[in-house]
Fold these 3 entries.
Entry 1:
Amino acid sequence: MVLRKSKSMEDPMPTLGMLPNLRDLMLEDAYNGKKKMCIDSSFRQLEFLHLYHLSNLERWHLATSAMPLIKSLAISRCSKLKEIPERMKYVEEKLNAVDL
């Protein structure tokens, strides 16, 4: 699933996390908020997550049981993001350090 250019102020993660068969998610310029929340038991089948051009994103909360099958994480042009969740640091990452 791709969400592009919606620039929503409402975090899409709580709603998207309930989709039972979502395996690949790309958010590109799709969220203008500062905080992203992934609650417990969300994204049960997600394997690939791509975050691009989320220029206001500062914090990402990832609950312990969220995204249990994640295999790949790509982040680019999220310049205000202070850090990724600890558990995501062990996922095969494709981070552009200059654009993060």
Entry 2:
Amino acid sequence: MAEQQEFDVVVIGGGPAGYHAAIRAAQLGLKTACIDAALGKDGQPALGGTCLRVGCIPSKALLDSSRQYWNMGHIFNEHGISFADQKIDVAQMVGRKDKIVKQFTGGIAALFKANKVTAFYGFGRLQKGNVVSVKQHDGTTVELKGTNVILAAGSDSIELPFAKFDGKNIVDNEGALDFTEVPKRLGVIGAGVIGLELGSVWNRLGSEVTVFEAMPDFLAAADKEVAKVAAREFKKQGLDIRLGTKCTKIEVKADGVHVSFTDAKGDQELVVDKLLVAVGRRAATKNLLADDTGVKLNDRGQIEVDEHCHTGVDGVWAIGDCVRGPMLAHKGFEEGIAVAELIAGLPGHVNFDTIPWVIYTEPELAWVGKTEEQLKAEGVAYKAGSFPFAAVGRAVAMSEPIGFVKVLADAETDRVLGMHLVGPNVSELVHEGVLTMEFKGSADDLARICHAHPSLSEAVHDAAMAVAKRAIHKAN
């Protein structure tokens, strides 16, 4: 084995949390290494984690492609635009997605080089004393000694015991990004972010999509009014979402994948051509830690950390999907930067109360802060103001009048406690709520900020005005 190499910071994982931590640490003058095991379709190392390779970025590429196709058949005629032959080339669509993925994974490698982050490609395992052994893809093993080690191992798809992934008939998010043709019938287990987004992709392209959700409520984490509007629109689009439905058995036969399930009507069966299992993700901590490191895992396999992402073992930190908190790439971004700055002796903090959530369906859903249901349960007195996109000139001009913006503020102080949106481009608009809450602003602050006309952001402005019952473009 080669001589042990020493670094100020060793990061295990090159996903959103890990690569942010590595680059920021290097910017701060720390000698930094980052270890990542992932390979791209071409068999070459591909930094960026699940997010860039098989998650956030490729799914948005397919969502955009499928939306263009959907608009051709459902919206363009309103603009006077017609097509004689509407068709989709799935191979070209997937190829475009792959090209985007390669561009961004290669971009991180370039950033590592520019910032002098040393990359190691293989599987990293933490040993006692902040030593990381790396089994590289070429078969060799190297040892890295880190004054600080940051664990950013990410997460894996949860596999159901009765629905094992085969990469062909029963797939996870990765498989659903690479179908070679539009499945005539697609089954989806789980009506969460992944299930709804990828279900939407193939539904727009002509697949008959059935979504099985065990919970009785649709998008229970979202504002009830937002979820209600979204459910109505998804139904119009042809998504068959079955709530309170528990899948019990999966069998692959000659005529397709047989899904046995139980709902209010009793035991039933549905045959589909492909089945996407999207029931959540779990921390990818298997084989990450030697037995004597002192780093602890909870009963969900997550690494235990304090509010500063420290494990309690001197110099060992953990961030991203492998620790508590929402499994969101941008949460990992912020934790990675915060930990790098803490290591360098600077302040570092992540405010979990202002982390935005987005579902990139059509319409989009986004929110930050508390829902009305949470505020009622906590006994917090609040005021609410909402405004529909149907009254926003820009939205109507875009033929996207569905949805609304809701602002929730403290009844006494007027401080914004939450913002909930469903409609066009709300993945961008939600950040007005994030910024207002981060600066502890009030609904009145937001209402007194001049917003451009005509713009979608006017819905935010009028919703904030509606909190004090002074919206101009709706009856208060």
Entry 3:
Amino acid sequence: MSRIFFTADSHFGHDRIIEYCNRPFASAAQMDAGLIQRWNARVGVQDTVYHLGDFTLKKPTYAQNILRQLHGTKHLIIGNHDHAADHTLWASAALAADLTVNGRRLYLCHYPLREWPGMWRGALHLYGHVHGSYLPLPGSMDVGADVWGGWPVTLEEILPTITPYDADQARQQQTRLQLQPW
């Protein structure tokens, strides 16, 4: 039975991300090997992975070489460091995705959003970009490598970490911003 995984912000080949995010590697080559090992230890060839952006900052040939080593069917949610030429290397590439996994509606975007399609009806938002530096809003979660130790994760692993979004409570707590009177 195939499974669906999520990850973001691998930054393959990016030396400086090791320092920026305190990753436990001595070099980008060591980090790449570690990320590939973790990916392939979890993801089978029949599985699907949604990578929520910032796969690599390197040229398309570098991305292609890494992608060939990774198991599964790979879909890219485009991040701010993903080059346009890389998009053809993936099963699909989009700025966002709205999908249902195991009966749960998900909205995928590289960036954390304050509100997303379906939020008021229970849709969950998965994102990357912030490398664990923002606490997630109710109904959302950062699926980035720096949050999950470099491991791609399933929805079943993510769900217990998400604070439920309560639309009724949110309506009661709503305040409005008004800088000028009518």
